[in-house]
Amino acid sequence: MLPSALINEPSPTMSSLPSKAVTAASTFARRLGGALDSLGSKLEVAKVSEKLVPSTRFVAYENSLPSATGAFVAPTASLVGDVVLEKGASVWYGAAVRGDVSSVKIGERSSVGDRAVIHVAKIQTDDGEPVPTIIGSGVSVGANAIIHAATIMDNVKIGACAQVLDGVIVNENAVVADGAVVTPGTVVGSGELWAGSPAKMQRMLTEEEIASNVAKCEEIMELAAVHSSECAKTYEEVKEDEEEYYDKLYRDPNGFQPMPKDAIKQDGDVLQQGVPGRIFNTTLDGDDSKKVCRT
User: Fold this and answer.
1) Per-residue CA distances from 28 to 8, 21, 41, 68, 89 (Å)
2) What is the mean pLDDT of each run of 10 residues along the chain (295 residues)?
3) Which residues, listed in sequence order, are joined to residue 97 by a DSSP beta bridge?
C-alpha cells in the first residue's frame, strides 16, 4: 500500500502537457508570422507609404462654413467655422483662422502671414457672448503671429511672432513690433508703435512709416494674386509650364523654335510628325521601329 503523501500528490507530467502545448503553438505562430513578414518585405518592389492630406482649407463647424469670396487662401492654410474674408484679403501658407466658439472677420486687403494663428475666445463678456476677432482693412499680420479674441482697426501692422491677446484693441495706423506681446485688455492708440514683452508704447509713428504700411499691404495683395493664379492651375497646365521651362533651358536659340500656340492646327500635328515641342520623337518614314529625335 502506497503512503498517503504519494497518493494525494498530482502527476507533474499530466498537468503540464496542456501548458507546454500552448507555449509551443504560440512560439511557432510568432516565428511563422515573422517569417511571412520578412518574405513579404523582400518581395515588395516599391515601398508605399500612405499619407493623409496635410491640410483642408475650408472646414465647417456646427453648420458654419468659412466664406472667402475674392480672397486668396493658400493650399496649406485652414479656415474653420464662422470665418469671413473680404475681397482682396489673403491667408498664407500654414496659417490657421479658427472661428469655432465665435466669429472671425478679416477686412479687405488684409493679410495673415505664414503659420500665423487667428482665434477667438469662449470667455463670457458682459452681454454673455464669446469674444470674436475683428481685423479691419489694410492690416498686415506677420508670420507666426497670434491674434486671439482681439480687435484690429484699419491700416495696422502686426509684426512677425507678435502676440495680440484677449480683449486687446489696436487702433488705426498703429504698429505692433516683431515679437511684442500685447497683454489682455490693452488699448493701443492710433499711430503708436508698441514693442516689448509685455508691450509698451515706444513712440508715435511718422507719416512716412504709416504710408509704408499702406504700400506694404498693396504689395502683398499683388503677390497674392500671382500665388492665387499659380495655385489654381490644373495638372495639365503645370505640366505645360514645366515643358516650356525645360524647352527654354535646353533648346539651342539657333535651332528650330516652337511654333506659336495659335499657329498649331487643332489636331496638333505638323507634317505628320506630331506637335512641335521640346523634342520630335516620331518616325519620319512611318516605320515605328525606327525612332528618331529631332530638335
Assistant:
1) 35, 11, 20, 60, 64
2) 48 60 79 77 53 64 89 92 95 94 94 96 72 95 96 96 95 96 96 95 95 92 92 85 88 78 59 56 47 45
3) 79, 118
Place of cell 505645360: 240
Q: Residue 278: which residues within 8 A CB-CB, separation 6 or more?
A: 243, 246, 247, 250, 251, 295
Rounded (5°) CA angle 210-96-109: 35
- What pairing do the DSSP bridges indicate for beta strands 117-119 and 146-148? parallel
Q: Which amino acid is at 155?
A: N
Has this prediction a pTM greater than 0.90? no
CA proximity to 241, closest of 253, 257, 252, 229: 229
| Full strand arrangement of the beta sheet holding 72-73 | 72-73, 90-91, 111-112, 140-141, 157-158, 175-176, 192-196, 199-204
Q: Please, where are the H alpha helices in the chain?
A: 4-8, 12-43, 207-231, 235-250
